[in-house]
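Example 9 (inverse folding). The structure is encoded as follows.
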């Protein structure tokens, strides 16, 4: 390259330099990658160490969790009673296994309303997201409403369905709440079976017992239970365990 051209390029670089530019990551200037020359003289992109964190923040933003939910960490789950201590321990075990083995196992949090099932499910999601695993939270009834509303248009319906079948982990909160219609059953089966066939785990919280889930629909229930691979936490049914009612009754 001749010297004139180099001088022009240098001047251009100088002019483009923005003073006092703030980067979250000064190493890669927020590009997520740095560039180095490999042994063959080619320039290659190397993921910066900030990339995983950046991706996990993106995953958090896509998770469907509200600000309130983001406080529901595993550590903030109060465990005084034996069943709470056990539930917390099992959930931690599930997370540890998941991270160690790249698990495709699901998790079932079943039983007593108001006992902290949602809290533990969210806490699990938060841990997985922090480890850069994409998780999506969805209330079961809202999923059914959304699927129903889009069912008249195939493109809309498929796009909606993908919101539940694509995430690495789906947390369906309050599974089987209310009386499912014939159409609802079709949607539920579609979501559960698609994830089952893809080997993609699902976390569910439900007031139903394992027996009741199977009674609802054996095809759906058996898939969820098989996928949970023993990660089933049943909360004891006793109104003193309903923390939402504390001080009211
Ligand atoms: Zn960086």
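The amino acid assigned to each position is listed next.
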């Amino acid at each position: 390259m001749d010297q004139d051209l180099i001088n022009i390029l240098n001047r251009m670089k100088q002019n483009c330099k923005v003073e006092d530019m703030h980067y979250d990551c000064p190493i890669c200037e927020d590009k997520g990658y740095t560039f180095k020359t490999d042994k063959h003289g080619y320039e290659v992109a190397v993921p910066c160490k900030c990339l995983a964190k950046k991706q996990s923040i993106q995953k958090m933003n896509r998770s469907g969790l509200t600000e309130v939910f983001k406080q529901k960490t595993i550590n903030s789950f109060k465990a005084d009673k034996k069943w709470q201590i056990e539930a917390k321990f099992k959930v931690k075990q599930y997370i540890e296994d998941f991270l160690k083995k790249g698990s495709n196992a699901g998790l079932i949090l079943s039983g007593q309303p108001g006992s902290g099932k949602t809290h533990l499910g969210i806490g699990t999601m938060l841990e997985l997201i922090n480890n850069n695993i994409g998780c999506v939270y969805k209330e079961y009834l809202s999923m059914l409403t959304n699927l129903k509303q889009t069912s008249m248009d195939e493109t809309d319906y498929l796009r909606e369905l993908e919101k539940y079948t694509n995430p690495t982990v789906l947390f369906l909160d309050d599974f089987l709440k209310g009386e499912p219609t014939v159409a609802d059953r079709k949607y539920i089966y579609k979501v559960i079976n698609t994830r089952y066939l893809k080997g993609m785990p699902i976390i569910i919280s439900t007031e139903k017992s394992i027996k009741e889930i199977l009674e609802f629909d054996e095809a759906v229930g058996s898939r969820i239970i098989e996928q949970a691979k023993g990660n089933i936490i049943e909360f004891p049914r006793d109104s003193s365990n309903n923390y939402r009612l504390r001080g009211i009754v």
